[in-house]
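Write out this protein's structure.
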Amino acid sequence: MTVSYQEPDSVVGRPAHVTVAIPGGARPGEVLVRVRGGSESYIAYADEPVDEGLQVVVVADRGARSLVVVPL
């Protein structure tokens, strides 16, 4: 069994909800991630477009409240 350690405040690996459609590529959208007992908004980038309302998973933290996500 593989156990992965995740920093308590890390959002990488967490599911997120797309609140503003992500056009894909260099154009960002916005996601809502449950973290620290609440939900926080982040700017989100994805290789392909992702529609508002879909679930994604965070695959990288770009810093400055900016993430890379992929659809679930």
